[in-house]
Amino acid sequence: MDRRKFIKNSALASSLFLVPSFVKAFESVATKQLGYKRLVIIQLAGGNDGLNTIIPHNNDLYYNARPRLAITKDIIKLNDDLGFHPSLAPLRNLYDKGELSIINNVGYPNPVRSHFRSMDIWQTASGSDEYLQSGWLGRYLDKYGKKPYNAIEMDEQLSLAMKGEHFNGIATNDYKVLHRTAKDPYFKNVLNHYNDTHLSEHNLGYLYQTMIEAKSSAKYIYENTQVKLSQQDYPQNGFGKQLKNVAQFINSGLDTKVFYTSLGGFDTHANQQNKQSRLLSQYAESVSAFVKDLKRNETFEDTLILTFSEFGRRVKQNAANGTDHGAANNVFIIGKQLKKAGFYNDLASLNDLDTNGDLKYSIDFRSVYATILSQWMDVSTEGILPSKQKSLNFI
Fold it and tell me: Where is the secretion signal located (predicted)?
């Protein structure tokens, strides 16, 4: 494999080599054990329309604002006011069993409607006027991580959320390819070429250590995942594959606390109905299979699943039968040990929108993070979240 191909195709290169902050990972290792509880994050990229996901089926304002876009048929009514989009039918069982909590109106002050900026805010847990270079999960790893595989992202590149100030997770969309890449002769030649003296001269000693740990991580993930290959049927799409791999990692007992997955395509400015319906089906069917897989292997009880999107959509439909960028949105929490299942709170009033015609937020997304860190991961939020946030009571 030549160098150009290696850099282009290697998940190791994109997730480790190009992240300078990673090289300090081994200067300080926390003494506290990571424990057994795991967090799985699902990012619905593009800004999912929360109002057509959790539908106010008894509200005339909703139908008036969306004469062609409102969901009118096959709504899965969960109570007198709110219901699921029909494509979320596979999640009804989780709702009925008290294993799903729906938090409405999640956002932050002075919302930003740029995809990239809003996603940075969610991934770093910053305010809308702050610019941070590390993610909230990366800072968690700074304090409690030991190895790159303590946090795994199912992608070729590592998101900002998983990058710490001194410690990063690892990214791979195929752990078998990751293992083969680490065994590639080019990788070995690089390690052999940059001996300690050469690295010292060019101040690259940490990079050498990073590459050693990357190769070790790839070997660890590959060898341990072979212990428990999934027997569950998953949808035949990229997102289903991500969750299948995560289930194999969890069921094989990998020492991994955080898994990060994503499903894109939710930027529905035009012809939203069919596109969102298809994406929500992929999401719900894959999550349902994932939960069944964990339950079959008795690992669901120790797993919490968080689903979010960087913002919601405008209440009124646009002229292209779609919706434009909005603000507050709903967040899904799935787990066995929920204190408050079902609807955590009511939907924001459609009578009282902000100046842009968006739903007003009532719950800061960083409170969701604070609750997960303190109540589920059993760690202090100090040094992880840049501002003090109150905990909620969903777990």
Answer: 1-25
